[in-house]
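User: Hello, can you help with two protein structures?

Assistant: Certainly.
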Amino acid sequence: MKFKVCGLFNDENILRVAELNPDYIGHIFWEKSVRYVSGDTPSINNSKKTGVFYNSNKEYIFKMIEKHNLKCVQLHGDESQDFCKKIYNTGVELIKSFRVDENFDLNLLNEYLDCCDLFLFDSKSELPGGTGKTFDWEILKQYNLKKEFFISGGIGLDSVNLLKNLFKMNLPLYGIDVNSKFEDSNNRKIIKDLKKFKEIIENEI
């Protein structure tokens, strides 16, 4: 089970999270986010540095890939299949995110099968990402594709039983993505809570 920590923007906090060796570390390159990365980011050796973009143009994405040495791009907006394919064809790992609620049409996913490596399912809200809300994972019982995915949205230490139930559905669950439920009042990640959660993932799920 892969572990992704998203929404990191403070250098000291990034390096402390990196010491936990998550599989992915996510930086948000969307100016309206409280976790927006405006400057440089430190080098990371053991985690896949991921850039999260929301309806950005491809020139900006390519610039950030080079500037931050991104190994993975997460498209979290309303990007088309053609747009995704242009990023995907560069060879960078691509995660396509979908914001899910009770009205989400799973058939939409078929259009993106050939233009990304992974899906990510997050909770639908007015503002994308970091909402602390969890959508009804029962919707995913209808998921019948082989494409692996991250689960995201409001996941915290109190989500362990939900995650265990999700795992029992025998879905191609690739990893768990966490963000706001592991933050202090300054949107910095709380290291002891992340460490505890990571241990639970490794030992119980």
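That covers the first. Now for the second protein you mentioned:
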Amino acid sequence: MTSIGKPLPLEQALADRVKGCCHPVAAPLGADRADQLAAIHRALSDPARVQMVHILANATEPVCVCDFTAAFDLSQPTISHHLAKLRDAGIVISSKLGIWSFYELSPRMSDAARQAVAHIR
């Protein structure tokens, strides 16, 4: 504030503030860890992918891509795109049987991915 009670312009108030003087904060995550967490959250940022993970989390056996196509009003290429995003994030794995691909949750997904998936069940 100035001596007559008016607030300082924002630019000056920010310039006068000493960086990091208010409260101690946690150290930033390592770049690799931040990238890993961001990839998981990006993969789960689409409602269709959240629904797919829900289906897989409640399935008793791998789910055929044809079953996803029947469950959603999306084309097969779009379904495959969504499943590829989940696979790239380490959330699902796939196997082929004839011309069909079958998907299931990855038993080797990271703890962070496992925790995120637990909220979807």
